[in-house]
Amino acid sequence: MEYEELKAEYEKTSILLNLEVNKLLFKEFPEFYKQVEDDCNIDLAYVMAGEFTRFLLEKYKKNDLDTVRRGFDFIEQLHLNKEHKIRELATIGYLESMLGTDLSRSDNFLNFLGVESKKWWDKLNKFWNGDIMALRDDN
Q1: Is residue 64 over pLDDT 90?
Q2: Which of 8, 79, 86, 102 would bridge with 90, disulfide CB 3.0–4.6 Å?
Q3: What is the share, in percent, of the chain residues with pLDDT greater than 90?
Q4: Nearest to residue 122, comparing CAs of 110, 111, 112?
Q5: What are the respective helix, strand and coil percentages of the chain, to the nearest 5?
Q6: Is 64 helix (H, G, I), strand (E, B) or coil?
């Protein structure tokens, strides 16, 4: 297979994987789906990741910690997925969207992170502090 064919197949696979993530997200959080279905391009996984971060922040401010925990459990499951593109979405899409938010500055934030998400949160912060190799996937 030539480079362009490989690249096209990789992009197609990435798009399909991201669509599957969005389907799971909407199934797990129907309230979130109702909130975004008319306002956003729900096919774009990284857009949905940012929107979901805002959704979790709203829930945190309303002290709906059960929903916040479930949201972080969802992100943890993405980090544990065998597909690199899904793990990348979990870090770059979901966690990076949280950088600098009230939620990420709260005392409880690290308690919401699962083990794998915490590992990637630390790597993400190292990256933003100048370690350009920090986000290498060790899996």
Answers
A1: yes
A2: 79
A3: 56
A4: 110
A5: 75, 0, 25
A6: coil
Beta carbons of 21 and 45 less than 8 angstroms apart:
yes
**Token digits of residue 16:** 């399909």
Which token pair is 70?
């479930």
Average pLDDT over residues 107-135: 91
Instruction: Give the Cβ contact number of residue 57 at 10 Å.
Output: 19
| Dist. CA 78–CA 88, nearest whole Å | 9
Give the residue extent of every domain in the chain.
3-128
Reported pTM = 0.85
Angle between helix 65-79 and 3-28 (nearest 10): 160
**Contact by Cβ (8 Å): 17, 82:** no
